Each structure stands twice: as C-alpha cells, then as structure tokens.
Amino acid sequence: MVKIHLSRILGEKRMSQKELSEKTGIRRATINEMYHELVERINLDYLSKMCEVLNVKIEDILEYIPDKNTKL
C-alpha cells in the first residue's frame, strides 16, 4: 500500500488545495483526489512540481507500507 501524505503536508504548510493548484498548474480536482488518497496513479511531473512548491522530498509525500497479507 502507498500512503499519500498531501493533506498533512498542506496542513503543516498552511496551504490550501486551491493555492497548491495555482502554484503548480495542477487541476484542483486532481489535487483533491490526491489529498483524499483516491488516486491509483500519480503523474511524475505533478509529483515533481508539488515537491518543488512545497519544498519537500518525494518520500515526504509518498510512503510505502508493506501489506502483511501479501505473499510473494
């Protein structure tokens, strides 16, 4: 499972979804989907823009959590 920490980061930065959208050029609907962890794929260009604007690393936004029930 991959956790998206966009809501936490925006809260810490006191930045709205609208403001992030305006600064990155990413549609508000797309940011809202990431904010609520409703996305299955993330555009790497979007991720790069968010990291730049928010002054964070990719690993601050995305976290991989191994699924204990998955067998290889």
Structure characterization notes:
It holds the Pfam family HTH_26. Residues 6-61 form the HTH cro/C1-type domain. The chain has a single domain (2-64), classed as 434 Repressor (Amino-terminal Domain) (Orthogonal Bundle), CATH 1.10.260. 54% of the residues lie in helices and 8% in strands. The protein has helices spanning 6-13, 17-24, 28-35, 44-54, 58-61, and strands at 2-4, 62-64. The chain is built from 5 helices and 2 strands.
Distance between the termini: 15 Å
Question: How many domains make up the coordinates?
Answer: 1
Q: Pairing-aware structural class of the strands and helices? A: mainly alpha
Anisotropy-based shape: elongated
Q: Note poorly predicted spans.
A: none
Work out the helicity level. 40-55%
Largest sheet, in brief, is: 2 strands, antiparallel
Q: In percent terms, what proportion of residues is strand?
A: 5-15%
The largest beta-sheet arranges its strands as 1-2
| Strand/helix succession | EHHHHHE
The CATH architecture classification is: Orthogonal Bundle
Q: What is the total tally of β strands?
A: 2
Q: Can you tell me the CATH topology?
A: 434 Repressor (Amino-terminal Domain)
